[in-house]
Structure formats: C-alpha cells, structure tokens
Amino acid sequence: MTGKIGQWTLGTLVIDDRQPGLAYANGPYATRAVDGVLRVTREFGKQSYVGAFASSRDFSGTSNRVASLDARLKFSKNWVANLQGVHSWTRQDSALSYDCLSFAPSSGNLGSQQGNALWGDAGYTGRHLYFSTRYSDLSPNFCTELGFVNRIDLRQNFTSLSYIWQPQNIKIVDYGPTVTETLDWNHAGVLQDWAAVAQFQLELRNQTSFTVNRGERMERFAGIDFRQHGTAVSASTQAYKWISVSARYTGGTGTNYYPAQTLAPFQPFLGSTKRVNFGFTLRPSSRFRIDETWIYSRLGVRPGWTTPPFNPNGNVFSNYLNRTKLNYQFTRELSVRLILDYNATISNPELFDVQTSLGGSDLMNSFKVPTKQFTADVLLTYLLHPGTAFYAGYNNSLSNLSLVQAAGGNPAFVMLNSSPSNTTSRLFFVKVSYLLRY
Questions:
Q1: Environment class of residue 402 by beta-carbon count within 10 Å: exposed (0-12), middle (13-18) or buried (19+)?
Q2: Bond into 309 cis (ω within 30)
Q3: Do 214 and 180 form a contact (C-beta atoms < 8 A)?
Q4: CA 14: distance to chain centroid?
Q5: Distance CA 181, CA 197 (A)
Q6: In angstroms, rounded to a whole number, what is the distance separating the alpha carbons of residues 281 and 311?
Q7: Is residue 2 part of a domain?
Q8: Within 10 Å of residue 372's Cβ, how many Cβ atoms?
Q9: How high is the pLDDT of residue 105?
C-alpha cells in the first residue's frame, strides 16, 4: 500500500513467504516466513524531508528487524546532504543458510546479535565546481535479511572534486580536472584499501571527448598489502551520423586472486596488467546498423612477485571478448537481429587456476567451465505496435568442453579442447503477444 497526504508519504508491504519452509518436510522450520516493510517520510522546506524505515522478517524461531531514521537536507540551490542511521536486531539458527553468522550461539544453534550502520553524504553542484563526499560505517554484527549489503565490518570514505571550464568556443564544450580518493578500514583499525585518482577530460563538439587518468591504490587481500597503479587513456567520437568510435587503453599492475594450486609459495601475487577496449557503430543506411565491441585484458608476470624460472614477461592469463551485432529493418514492422559472441580465457596453468576463477573445479570428474565459447543468436521480429508482436528466434552455443568415454569401464570425463567446436545447446522459439484494448 502506498499513498501521500499533504507533505506525508506512506508505503507498506506485507508478504506471506512459503519458500523457506519448502526445504523441510517436518519440524519447526516446515512453515512460512512473514515479511513486512514500512516507510514514512515528511517533507519540509524546499526539497527536504525526514523519514523512517522499518523491516521485519520472522521464520519459526528466527527473526531479523531493521529500523532507521534518515533525512535529506537541501541547504541552498548548490548544497545538499543526506543522513541515515540504522540499527538491526537478529536472531538466527547457525544450521540455516543465512549470511549473518558472526554471533556466538547462546542455546544450541540459536544466537542473537545487534548491529549498526551509518551513512552520510554531502554535495555541492555549481557552474564550474563539483564536490561530493560520503562516509559509511557498517558494524561487524549488522544484518538485513530483506536487504542487500555486500560487505560489513567496514568504514569507508569517498571524496570527489571537479572543476570544469566551459569556454565560449565553437569547438571546445568543456575541459577540466577531477580528483577522487577512497579509504576503507575495518573496526579493528586495519587499513583495507585506499585509492587516489587524478583525471583530465576534454569534450569537443560532435560528441567527441578525450580522457587521461592516473591512479594509485593499495588493496589488502589474504593478509597481503598489494600496492597497485594504473594509467588510462580513452577517446570517443561521433563526428558523422553514420559512424561512432570509442577506444580505451589501460596499463598498470593488478592482483592474481586465483594462483595455481601447485604454485610455491601458494599465495596471490602482483602482476602487470593491460586492457584494451574498442568499439564502433556503423549505420550504412537508415535501415542497417552494425555494432562491434572488442575487449582484451591481460595479466603478466611481474619481476619480484613470482618464483623463477617464470619468464618476467610471461603470461598469467589473457581474456578475449568480442561481440558483433547486426540489425536490419526491412519495414516499419519487420526486422532481423544477429548477435555473435566470442569469449576466451587463455592462461598459464602453472600460475593461474582458470577453473576456480570461472566458477569450476580442477578436480577429476568435477564441474568444469568452458574457457572458450562462441554463441550465435538470431531474432526475427514482426511488431505491429507495442504489446502486439510475433517473434521467432534461434540460438546455438558452442564451447571447448567435450565428454570423453574412458576405456576399461572407467567413468567418462570432461576434457578441454583447443577451440569451441562442440555444440552445448541449441534453442528455437516462437513467441506471439497480443494487446487487448478496451
């Protein structure tokens, strides 16, 4: 239910959730969960408000409650601030598959915990000057089952400052520098990440722009501090209606998060990175359009971070992505679209665990993920008007996985081939929709 009366706004939602109990045939958890959400705001001044939020989830003997107060304060036409404070109360069973398990069970598998979260940001927007800063703080015991929080036990600050000139020039639209900083640390006071980036941009007429930036950062991963840097140059233009082009090159250092299991010592290590993005759009006619995208990324061996005898210029992994998209409009109603996708990861098995990085496993007879894939997708559309249409499509996917029948009655196993030549799926579909108008 939602509604607004004067300067008050109200929204509420109640859910009878059967899904959690379907996994249990009997017992205390063979039941339903009850979810509820409430939101209230009160406007005042010019584009300012104060608000309150509450959510609740109950499932048998477990529960999660979240309550918060927040405000948006517009001090002037240039300055705006947002504030929020949140508290959570959680009671969970450690035998269930929930994420909030930092408590010490007090009775059997049941345990309770409370946590806090804070958020604040402020921004200034002017004709030339742009400034924003924000701070967030999530305690180790904070939990929200009905929300999404990707990381707890974290304090973070981010600040960005730009100054853009807009000259009265027939060729230059604007130009200027931007600097940003990011700082993360946990509640024990241990620094987790920091980053500082300086950028300069130039925007010209005809949607043409050039950007160069330099970044320095530190990342703490697996108890190791990785000092990294990167430099990027990018450009894009649409000088003519029938073509647009964009390109970006990035070089620097990066971390190998998935070292090979046989690597000694077995730990993440720093490598040299390269990344190239290139794309263009062609419109040879008003009916025909071609979109092309190429992405190449590489992590190479960096001296001092891997044990000899690895080549200092050797490859840890290289990834190739290519997409071609063709669209032709025969008539106002009839069109056809073709998409070709290619994705390949080539790695050094002595340095990089490619299966783990892709979500698979290196173990025999375990789940394997293809390292090379090619997909073709065709779609024919006859659109009379929105809601009334006919679609016919075909999809064919190939990968470099193949099933090999072992000799001597041994179980079959999956093998990786050099090229994506094995068909893994074919799909043909027809869809018809009709919009009834009254």
A1: middle
A2: yes
A3: no
A4: 29
A5: 7
A6: 39
A7: no
A8: 20
A9: 53
Helix (H) or strand (E) holding 422: strand 422-433
Q: What are phi and psi of 291, to 5 degrees?
A: -120, 130
The tokens for 164 are 């853009």
Q: Which residue has the tokens 């990018």?
A: 234
Residue 245 lies inside a defined structural domain of this protein = yes
Which residue type occupies 139? S
Question: Which residue in 362, 375, 376 sits closest to 416, CA to CA?
Answer: 362
13 found inside a domain: no
Q: Could you tell me the pTM of the whole model?
A: 0.83
* Assigned token pair, 30: 């063979």
> Is the bond preceding 386 in cis, omega lying within 30 degrees of 0?
no
| 293, containing H or E segment | strand 288-301
Token pair in block for residue 351? 């340095």
pLDDT in tens, 349-373: 999 999 999 988 777 667 888 999 9
Secondary structure in 3-state letters for 58-89: EECCEEEEEEEEEEEEECCCCEEEEEEEEEEE
Closest of 202, 201, 181, 184 to residue 193, by C-alpha: 184
N- to C-terminal Cα separation, the chain = 27
The DSSP secondary structure of 90-135, one letter per residue, reads: EEEETTS--S---SPPSBTTEEEEEEEEEEEEEEEE-SSEEEEEEE
Question: What is the Cα–Cα distance from 179 to 199, expressed in whole angstroms?
Answer: 6
Question: Token pair for residue 103?
Answer: 């408590």
Residue type, 141: N
Token code pair at residue 76: 């002037």
Please tell me what DSSP assigns to residue 356: H
pLDDT score recorded for residue 99 = 60
Q: Classify residue 416: in a domain, yes or no.
A: yes
Please write the tens of the pLDDT for every residue from 252-280. Answer: 999 999 999 888 888 999 999 999 999 99
In terms of Cα–Cα distance, which of 172, 210, 292 is closest to 244? 292
Quote the domain boundaries for residue 241: 115-433
Q: Which of 168, 100, 182, 97 is nearest to 136 (CA)?
A: 182
Residues of the chain with confidence (pLDDT) below 70? 97-99, 101-108, 364-365
Q: Number of structural domains, the chain?
A: 1
What is the bridge-based pairing of β-strands 172-185 and 79-93? unpaired
